[in-house]
Amino acid sequence: MTNPLTITEKIILAHTNLNSVSPGDIVNARVDIALGNDITAPIAIKEFDTIGVCDVFDREKIALIPDHFVPNKDIASAKQAKMLREFAKKYDIKYYFESGEVGVEHALLPEQGIVLPGDLVIGADSHTCTYGALGAFSTGVGSTDLAYAMAFGEIWLKIPYSIKVIFDGEPNKWVSGKDLILFLIGKIGVEGANYMALEFSGSTFKHLTMADRFSISNMAIEAGAKSGIFEPDEITEEYVSKRAKRDYIIYKSDPDAEYIKTLKYDTTKINPQVAFPHLPENSIDITEASAKNIKIDQSVIGSCTNGRIEDLRIAASILKGKKIAKYTRLMVIPATPEIYLMAEKEGLIDIFMNAGGVVSTPTCGPCLGGYMGILADGEKAISSTNRNFKGRMGDITSEVYLANPAVCAASAITGKISSPDEVA
Amino acid sequence: MLLKGKVFKFGDNIDTDAIIPARYLNDSDPENLRKHCMEDADPSFASNVNKGDFIAAGVNFGCGSSREHAPIAIKASGVPLVIAKSFARIFYRNSFNIGLLILEADTDSIDSGDILEVDSDKGEIKNITKNITINAKPIPKFMSELVSAGGLMEHARKRVKEGF
């Protein structure tokens, strides 16, 4: 009989040869999916080539997703994307996606049923924690870790302590998963969960979609967390069952599992949040943010945090029949081709373009200051992305304000940071 | 290991975009990354840093992205050691994996320009300029073994050669 365990401890334990694990233990774990993108995989590929193995550990357990600077933004980026393509060809990597089928990695892999509940996923991308929304243990690592995992299918991991985060109550109008995670980061700070696993639960999540859970797990890293996990329930099953490419296992925490702390919030008291420059922890209520009369030059709706169809639908519901403010830019970036096509069929693309917005092919693009909407000196953007560090989206003197897609859409219409209520 | 060097001091929450901005991530050549190391925190860092100098910082150094380009850029600048009050998780593991030494210590008394003598095995940091000695948190055994094995890739190559 082992100790009572959290979902995180159970999943990691199941991927080792051990009989028990405790927080703080360093273990060698088997990985179900090892992920890299066009920025991180090139270093991993170079390292992999020095190891001396003649093949990858499993061609069906590696995902190479060229999404950051693809479609290639310049010659140097094209060379990096080429490295992924050549490696994928050489080892016949099953989950390599070419332009046209590629999407933002953390939207694409769950959508395609490649990452599943109970998986242990490592990715050379900090937002790999997104798959916690499915009830998987997934965490961001570096390129060297990816090289090692591609060779041996293993990763060294420290068993994290878990923080239980409970949101109870029905969310207010316009409040999404993005607002709950910005609110939490505002409470605990950008280092508040460093090295730890966040485990989310509470009655609020019965009222929200998988897209909300993805946004929340996605930004666990913005509190320093190793992972951000949800116990799978019928909402998870409904999402996963029609997409899964293989069998999966549902894990749940034992009722008496130990948490380093438990945080409980009343969702009915939370309004949409805006995180001010230059840290995601600088979140304030939209009414307070709106009162500051902050003029914006650009609004971005997209990314692994908020580029899903639910995000585009809510943005379109606000932009329908309206025009964005003069001298303001709106960038809409559906996160995957499937989302793009759904948005097309549902008439959302028409709405965005008629409002004066630009609709881009799926890419991480401006989120990390790559391309497709870079800011000039002194410019301000409101963005549905995940980071507002200094210079994140362009010039070092530019500013990024983080918000949900509804707030981004409303702000594009008024040209200043605004609540959706102001334009409805 | 005994190290002696001059400090470049930074504040809290130095993120990976400050260490190596994404605009330079279309390349992973250490020499090219070195030219832009710490650019968005201190644009003069790359031209002023000398081999053997240290970086010291406040809490949560290396927060943000998983880009290994960040510790690579620091290592390529000739900086053998970063001392901070705390490190973000992925930066921490990346540094050990690539063999960049990092120590957790109270850096409040350390300022830019201070000369430090560091015994990394003992975790002893002597501030020669200020005549103060501070102690770093001990490095977990697994991590120090990883560093003495030459980092994760050296371990990987050994694993293939010796077949374990």
Automatic annotation (TrEMBL), chain A:
Domain of life: Bacteria
Enzyme nomenclature, EC number: 4.2.1.33
Cofactor(s) required for function per UniProt: [4Fe-4S] cluster
Reactions this protein catalyses: (2R,3S)-3-isopropylmalate = (2S)-2-isopropylmalate
Pathways involved: Amino-acid biosynthesis; L-leucine biosynthesis; L-leucine from 3-methyl-2-oxobutanoate: step 2/4
GO MF annotation terms: 3-isopropylmalate dehydratase activity; 4 iron, 4 sulfur cluster binding; metal ion binding
Domain Aconitase/3-isopropylmalate dehydratase large subunit alpha/beta/alpha: 10-415
UniProt entry keywords in alphabetical sequence: 4Fe-4S, Amino-acid biosynthesis, Branched-chain amino acid biosynthesis, Iron, Iron-sulfur, Leucine biosynthesis, Lyase, Metal-binding
Positions that bind [4Fe-4S] cluster: 304, 364, 367
Any one GO BP annotation for this protein: L-leucine biosynthetic process
Signal sequence, start to end: none
Keyword Lyase: yes
Cofactor binding, note field: Binds 1 [4Fe-4S] cluster per subunit.
Task performed by this protein: Catalyzes the isomerization between 2-isopropylmalate and 3-isopropylmalate, via the formation of 2-isopropylmaleate.
Subunit structure comment from the entry: Heterodimer of LeuC and LeuD.
Family of this protein: Belongs to the aconitase/IPM isomerase family. LeuC type 2 subfamily.
Protein name stated in the entry: 3-isopropylmalate dehydratase large subunit
Organism listed in the record: Candidatus Acididesulfobacter diazotrophicus
From TrEMBL, chain B:
Keywords associated with the record: Amino-acid biosynthesis, Branched-chain amino acid biosynthesis, Leucine biosynthesis, Lyase
Gene Ontology MF terms: 3-isopropylmalate dehydratase activity
UniProt keyword annotation of Amino-acid biosynthesis present: yes
Lyase recorded as keyword: yes
Pathway(s) served: Amino-acid biosynthesis; L-leucine biosynthesis; L-leucine from 3-methyl-2-oxobutanoate: step 2/4
Ranges of residues in domain Aconitase A/isopropylmalate dehydratase small subunit swivel: 54-105
Signal peptide: none
Catalytic activity: (2R,3S)-3-isopropylmalate = (2S)-2-isopropylmalate
EC numbers for this chain: 4.2.1.33
GO biological process: L-leucine biosynthetic process
Subunit structure: Heterodimer of LeuC and LeuD.
Chain's role: Catalyzes the isomerization between 2-isopropylmalate and 3-isopropylmalate, via the formation of 2-isopropylmaleate.
The family this protein is said to belong to: Belongs to the LeuD family. LeuD type 2 subfamily.
HAMAP family, A to Z: LeuD_type2 (MF_01032)
The protein's name in its UniProt record: 3-isopropylmalate dehydratase small subunit
Originating organism: Candidatus Acididesulfobacter diazotrophicus
